[in-house]
Amino acid sequence: MKKLLTFSMLLGGFALTSGSAVAQEKKAPPSPRVTVSQVIASGAEVSIAYGQPSVKGRTIGKDLEPKPGVIWRAGANESTVLETNNAVKVNGKELAAGKYSFFVISGEKEWTLILNKTAQQWGAYDYKEADDAIRFMATPKKANSFSEKLTYSIDKSGVVTMNWGEYEVSFTIS
Q1: I need a labelling partner for 98 at 20 to 30 A (CA). Which of 1, 65, 116, 119 fits?
Q2: What separation in angstroms does the CA of 164 have from each of 42, 113, 161?
Q3: What is the model's pLDDT at position 122?
Q4: What is the pLDDT of residue 90?
Q5: Ranges under pLDDT 70 in the chain
Q6: Are 48 and 36 contacting, i.e. CB atoms less than 8 angstroms apart?
Q7: Per-domain residue ranges for the chain?
Q8: Is 91 left (phi over 0), alpha (psi -120 to 50) or beta?
Q9: What is the pLDDT of residue 105?
Q10: Segment (H or E) for 17
């Protein structure tokens, strides 16, 4: 009986130890994938799926993207994807229904925002300018409050806003 009790205790201890090891392996990723969506005034459903990095005391433009003049995936890991179920206008430019990767090139006074026809890309490594659907300009401004995590929002009027650190950049989908 003593041997059976000792064996049961060893087996139970092993189960607890291996269970906690599995739990440790499944911690949240540092830049989790997030999706925001909205049905805008025109009736189109618009969504943005992106990896959500955190600033963590680093400096945007030096330690973190976007870095001036360098293409950025507008998120972390896989490229950020903007999807619409209807044809829309983005800052006045025609865009067919579909999925598009979203990229940014920051400048001192204006940022170039890009919707690229190749939706599934890893970061900006496979980016090809020839596949751009549209490019448009946006003016960054100082945000009302610091955003530790990259955050996108879409309001019902179709205004898309990206908040990242001290930056706020908006554009309109109609």
Answers
A1: 65
A2: 27, 15, 10
A3: 87
A4: 98
A5: 1-25
A6: yes
A7: 29-172
A8: left
A9: 98
A10: helix 2-25
Q: Are 48 and 35 in contact (CB under 8 A)?
A: yes
Output the six-digit token pair for 173: 């989908």
From the number of C-beta atoms within 10 Å of its C-beta (0-12, 13-18, 19+), residue 111 rates as buried
**d(Cα 139, Cα 133) in Å, to the nearest integer?**
20
Displacement of CA 115 from its chain's centroid (Å): 14
| Strand locations in the chain (E) | 33-39, 45-51, 71-72, 80-84, 88-90, 93-95, 98-105, 111-116, 132-138, 141-154, 159-172
Chain CA centroid to CA 61, Å: 17
CA distance 84 to 48: 9
Closest C-alpha to 40, from 172, 161, 159, 157? 157
What is the maximum alpha-carbon separation in the chain? 81
The one-character DSSP state at 26 is T
Neighbouring-strand partners of residue 69 = none
> Residue 148 has which token pair?
């530790």
